[in-house]
Recover the amino acids of this structure.
């Protein structure tokens, strides 16, 4: 077995630890479901609410996973673990968890709603998962105190909910992309743009992951001088 | 304290002071004979095992520091200082630790023991000074450092993976170390469900896994019962005898007689 750990091992550990948080998993499912059911009578709004719930729940879980990992990371680095493998494994594990959840919601929407473009809804859900993981990750790097971090995510999610989605400010928030793709999928190309939504998702995820990696490098443990 | 327990501790104390096994056995048997004849409690008759062991060693003229002073330096620190905001935590700390030595860090709360260990581990930067080492390091924090949702063997496998140990190797090594700390690892509970002392044993084992050259242990046996604390020291002495080195912070007074060097820290502001 190679030294420095493997990304797969880190991903497995992330999934294992998350699977033991039963109450967290229940809320992870409940939050988007509640948002969806609250707007069930209107197909477009119900899907957009569902996406908002998925984004909020997954970014919060990612945030706590990132903060929790920060207590273990320095010790694992001393054993020889490569930091980038730990990070990639954790992010991969969270994206897998989110994708499983998203798949369940695609089935729910397919069975419960008559949407014009189900694959578009699937794309919106996947965009929601990836951007939420990226956003939760970078918040976890910047705001290390849990209460403040949870409130920071609440702040961004709340702003995304109340701001006019066609306004400029809303487009600078992390969860705008999935809403745009969902609008395209449910209401048609005249209302939403797939390309704009995808571009926003890719930009958001790239920005957050690069910022997170940069913060990791800035705060990495110092190297002691080597003895001659 | 029961006579058997007292004698057991007495024997450990003699061992820690470097008394060879044959003479140790003779002294313990002789002392047991005295206790038996007098019919009084050993604590009443001889006092604490550590005190009596020190008296015996002194009377026998034995050395109390078994580590060779000319061993190669494994870590040195030069003029380390650290402040948080405007409050000084450490000021001009020097360390010269050699292979086969145990250094005890003592001092009141807030004297900078944890900060110093983190600097030595390379986890935080000092404001001034340098740390020089080429040693591999195992670090056991005072709190945390384990994942509350993982089971003990999952921790062993995760930490072992860093060293390149496969699952079986990591588990076997961890269980061997746990046995020496009087703990039989089972996977019925996650780390959050372990008692405080047992979680601390897990954290300590994770620091020792892969056999690093140097252990940095921050209050490693807080929460241990007496027997486990004794076992911890036995394990550390064996570690030392095999060429390993350790820096141990502690509030326990016993560390003064169990370590080879003492560094006392005092609050600097």
């Amino acid at each position: 077995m190679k030294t420095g750990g493997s990304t797969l091992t880190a991903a497995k550990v992330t999934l294992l630890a998350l699977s033991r948080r039963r109450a967290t998993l229940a809320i992870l499912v409940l939050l988007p479901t509640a948002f969806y059911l609250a707007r069930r009578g209107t197909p477009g709004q119900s899907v957009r609410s569902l996406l908002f719930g998925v984004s909020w729940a997954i970014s919060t879980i990612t945030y706590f996973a990132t903060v929790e990992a920060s207590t273990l990371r320095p010790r694992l680095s001393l054993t020889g673990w490569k930091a980038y493998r730990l990070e990639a494994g954790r992010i991969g594990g969270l994206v897998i968890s989110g994708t499983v959840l998203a798949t369940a919601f695609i089935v729910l929407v397919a069975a419960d709603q008559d949407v014009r473009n189900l694959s578009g809804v699937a794309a919106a859900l996947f965009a929601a998962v990836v951007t939420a993981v990226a956003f939760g990750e970078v918040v976890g790097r910047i705001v290390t105190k849990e209460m403040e971090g949870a409130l920071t995510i609440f702040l961004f999610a709340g702003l995304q909910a109340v701001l006019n989605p066609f306004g400029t400010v809303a487009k600078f928030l992390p969860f705008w992309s999935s809403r745009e793709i969902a609008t395209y999928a449910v209401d048609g190309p005249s209302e939403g743009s797939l390309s704009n939504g995808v571009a926003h998702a890719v930009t958001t995820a790239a920005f957050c992951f690069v910022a997170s990696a940069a913060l990791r490098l800035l705060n990495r443990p110092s190297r002691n001088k080597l003895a001659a | 304290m029961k006579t058997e327990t007292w004698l057991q501790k007495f024997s450990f104390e003699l061992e820690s002071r470097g008394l060879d096994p044959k003479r140790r056995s003779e002294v313990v048997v002789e002392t047991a004979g005295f206790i038996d004849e007098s019919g009084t409690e050993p604590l009443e008759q001889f006092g604490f095992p550590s005190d009596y062991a020190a008296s015996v060693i002194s009377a026998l003229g034995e050395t109390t520091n078994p580590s060779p002073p000319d061993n190669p330096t494994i870590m040195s620190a030069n003029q380390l200082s650290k402040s948080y905001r405007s409050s000084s935590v450490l000021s001009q700390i020097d360390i010269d630790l050699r292979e086969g030595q145990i250094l005890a860090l003592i001092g009141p709360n807030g004297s900078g023991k944890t900060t110093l260990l983190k600097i030595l581990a390379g986890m935080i930067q000092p404001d001034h000074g340098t740390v020089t080492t080429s040693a591999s390091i195992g670090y056991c924090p005072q709190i945390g450092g384990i994942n509350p949702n993982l089971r003990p063997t999952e921790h062993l496998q995760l930490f072992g993976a860093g060293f390149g140990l496969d699952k079986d190797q990591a588990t076997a090594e961890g269980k061997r170390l746990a046995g020496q700390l009087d703990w039989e690892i089972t996977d019925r509970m996650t780390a959050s469900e372990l008692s405080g002392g047992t979680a601390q044993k897990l954290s300590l084992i994770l620091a020792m896994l892969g056999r690093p050259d140097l252990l940095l242990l921050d209050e490693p046996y807080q929460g241990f019962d007496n027997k486990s604390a004794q076992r911890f020291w036995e394990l550390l002495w064996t570690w030392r005898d095999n060429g390993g080195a350790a820096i141990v912070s502690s509030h326990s007074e016993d560390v003064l007689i169990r370590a080879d060097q003492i560094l006392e820290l005092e609050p600097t502001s």
The CA atoms of residues 111 and 252 of chain B lie 15 Å apart. DSSP finds ten helices and eight strands in chain B.
